[in-house]
Design goal:
Blueprint: H1 3-7, H2 16-29, E1 41-45, E2 51-56, H3 65-75, H4 80-84, E3 87-92, H5 104-111, E4 115-120, H6 130-136, E5 140-143, H7 147-153, H8 155-160, E6 166-173, E7 178-180, H9 192-204, E8 207-211, H10 212-218, E9 237-241, E10 259-262, H11 267-276, E11 281-285, H12 288-296, E12 302-307, E13 315-316, E14 332-334, E15 342-345, E16 348-355
Parallel strand pairs: 3-4, 4-5, 6-11, 6-12, 8-9, 8-11, 9-10
Antiparallel strand pairs: 1-2, 1-3, 7-13, 12-16, 14-16, 15-16
Helix pairs in contact: 5-6
């Protein structure tokens, strides 16, 4: 990109180089992982409007996009002076707090960057204030570039942040939408590669949630494991929802203190309790009735379906959504984030969807009693004793 292109401004007051950089940052952001954190990308432009590097956030506990792009710029050979003179372009306002990683504002200030462009502000109370912090330190901060695209990328996360955990619902099913055969067998609907990807989802989540019915039927461990069966490095909390007690000898209890029982049938109540103890990303893994309960309450933020190429004519993935006509359908759309809307794992296909807003069926929590009945869960992507 030439210096002339860099200094030519759009109608919104941003340079064409900045607009192109933001588009690249948005594309990078979309390859990230949905969950407790938003999808964020960042780019660095040199003083002549040339792209130095593009980075993005890869999930909880990893470098934020701003830090990632700084590392990538250095790895590409950019000098400290070039980085300090650059403009950082970010899809979301840089965070101003320290959690699993440090504050992005401090990383930006540490390298001497004096110009930042971001698409939209961060509504998360703990992370907000980044633009103010940077401006107070003398950094030129501008916002609003490609804001609509940035908002669309994270609209569901923006809706729930600060109120409840982000919810990922995972199922593995046959072509005819069954998660188990008529006799309850479900090992294995999907193959080893898809099952291992299911364990990767567990690693990314703060908590894995199933119903007491699933525990009574399958006695799962709900741990995240490597292909050889060894524990993964990061383990989710294991949460069981329902009014019946979890047996003292149940494998899900474990011995690491990361088990919790939620004596409720109300999805909203369960999420409120989990949010209060710091859980920000919940994975519903198996349990068709529990899946249906959260879906009809409008509490599924991401739907991941492992589709196996077989017909079994068995038990449906969503046994009771309380819907009578097509007009009442709960609608989802393909989600290109996190590796794309469709990804092959051997003979199986992982399909990723996000909800079309405004579709929910409001039912009385008392209708959720079946959550406590022993039921065959969908462990086709995780395994019995899963």
């Amino acid at each position: 990109m030439t210096a002339t292109t860099h200094h030519h401004t759009t109608d919104a007051g941003f340079t064409l180089a900045e607009e192109h950089a933001m588009a690249a940052a948005l594309r990078a952001a979309a390859t990230g992982v949905r969950g407790a954190n938003p999808l964020v990308g960042a780019a660095l432009l040199d003083v002549d409007g040339r792209l130095i590097a593009v980075g993005h956030h890869r999930g909880a506990g990893t470098d934020h996009a701003e830090v990632d792009v700084l590392h990538r710029a250095a790895a590409a050979g950019a000098s400290p002076e070039q980085i300090a003179a650059a403009t950082m372009v970010v899809t979301l306002e840089p965070c101003n707090h320290t959690g699993r990683t440090g504050a992005c504002t401090e990383a930006i200030l540490a390298v001497g960057i004096r110009s930042v462009v971001h698409a939209i502000g961060d509504p998360h109370r703990a992370a907000a204030g980044g633009a103010h912090r940077l401006r107070a330190a003398g950094v030129d901060v501008r916002d609003g570039l490609l804001a609509d695209q940035a908002f669309d990328l994270n609209r569901r996360w923006l809706d729930v942040v600060g109120t409840r955990p982000f919810v990922t619902l995972k199922i593995a099913q046959s072509l005819d939408g069954a998660v188990a055969a008529a006799d309850g067998t479900s090992q294995w609907i999907t193959g080893p590669a898809a099952r291992q990807d299911g364990h990767r989802l567990r690693e990314l989540a703060d908590a894995v949630l199933v119903s007491t019915g699933t525990v009574l039927a399958d006695d799962p461990t709900l741990t995240a494991r490597h292909p050889d069966g060894t524990p993964a490095g990061r383990q989710p909390r294991r949460v069981v929802m329902g009014l019946r007690p979890v047996p003292a000898e149940a494998a899900v209890r474990g011995d690491d203190g990361r088990f919790r029982a939620l004596p409720t049938h109300d999805p909203d109540e369960a999420l409120a309790a989990l949010y209060a103890d710091g859980t920000r990303h919940v994975l519903i893994d198996g349990s068709p009735r529990l899946s249906a309960a959260f879906a009809r309450a409008g509490l599924v933020d991401e739907l991941i379906v492992y589709q196996a190429p077989l017909l079994i004519g068995g038990r449906p993935a969503f046994p009771d959504l309380g819907l009578d006509t097509l007009d009442d359908a709960l609608r989802f759309e393909p989600d290109e984030a996190g590796g794309g809307a469709a990804t092959r794992f051997g003979p199986d296909t992982r399909l990723r969807f996000r909800p079309v807003d405004g579709t929910a069926v409001q039912l009385d929590p008392e209708t959720l009693d079946p959550l406590d009945r022993p039921q065959t869960s969908d462990h086709s992507a995780t395994g019995k004793k899963g």
